[in-house]
Amino acid sequence: MQSAIRPTLVTGIGAVAVAALAINPVSVPLPKAGQISIGAQTAAVRLTAAADPFQEFVKAFNTASANATKIAGSYFKAPEAFLQQVLVNQTKYLGQVMQNPNLGTLQTVLEQIRTNIQAAIDVSTVVNAPSAQATNGLRAGIDTLHQLGLNNLPGYLNLPADQVDQIKKVMTFLASPATGVLIGLAGPVISPAVALGQSIQAIVGHLSGTPDLGAAVQEFINIPGNMIGAFFNGATANLDALVPVINNSGILKSGTSLNSLSMAFGGLFSTGSTRTADGIGGSIFNSMGMNVSTSFIGVPITLNIPGQAVGPLAAMTSLSQLIARAIGWNGTGNPLANIAFPTLPTPAPAPATLTTSPAAAEQSITSIPEVRSLTAAPKPAAAVSPAVSKVSTTTPTAKEAPEVDSSAPQKDSAATAAGATDSTAVASGAEGRTKADDAKTKADAKADTKKAEAKTKAEAKKAKAEAKKAEAKSEADAKKAKADAKKTESKTKAEATTGASHAGTDAA
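^ thats the sequence. predicted structure below, dont judge the formating
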């Protein structure tokens, strides 16, 4: 192949040199007057007038503008649709975790993320993908004619079934949108070189056989415009040299032959051609152009499939929208229009009433013995004791007061014991009662408690009065004893005085 290309390149370089000389001839001695041919002057003027250095630039600009308009119309309907949908999904997952923060929710979210990643891979590569994802991926990767060629590929090949299946898988992957991005990125680099080679071949063709110097010069002038146009709009490489090799390899069935083969490389703004709504995008298989003659149901037909060049902008825009649909986008408007930011769960309000269960009812019934503490506290009786002790220490004659006071605590104790017995009986019999019975029991216990407190107060008051009475009696007895003592003392003094006077009389 290299040996075949080398003479072509040499011839092309020579043709370029000839064209350059035709435009700017080498300086030679001017001919003498009368030696200049009028016909030569006319041909030179005609050649200069026919050359147009701007036509390819104008063509390249207009084509690039139309392609860029089509891509922009598709892109700005949902800019970076894939990233928008990812953001929408992440906010949804965060909301799920915040509303129900547990391990089960986290596992569910991780499973959803894994499912979305798998869906993105399936729709991008197509191979071994579910039918729905494979259909959507091929719709965004190839046009109708290439889809027809892919479907009939097993009918063209004269190979074992397992090899045909492997080739079918390879060609299916080459028809996927992911390969469209690969060839789209390579296109702006390869296309200018392809355009340069085509221009050189065209110049050589114009100089071969019957030379057309004007066409050769124009093609030479068009080289910069062709290369710039290829960078923006792509170029198609002719691969007809491979046709005989394929036809003679024996891989095609009898009656099937390949007539032509090409590869369309896209430029920066090349749109491609697919079956999506916007019609942009492509793949490596979609970039292949071929002309195939075959027999369909015994009828010979010729299938002409032109290559569709796709550039990086169209390929990435189409793939972004394709993946966004696979992970949740409905294909209408911006995905971010459906975003819902997460919220924290609202705390549940406290219940107005306690829920009654059998265990709670039993607990409320058995808690009735707490009434015992109300009836068993003889607080007023404790206040009587100091008064009684004061009376007993004042005089020995007040011994009766403690006997009266001691009876009060005994009565209180008896009442307390009775109340405790009654309360115990109430508690022991309350197990099978209803809430109404419990309320009645509590009311009765409260009444008994008030009655016992009133009785205790009355007895304490009585004991206090008796203590005061005993104290008053003790004071009266003390006064009487003091008076008796004075009286006795006076009597003793009087008797002593009388005895002395008698003694003096006797002495006289």
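Residues 1-45, 368-432, 502-508 have pLDDT under 50 and may be disordered.
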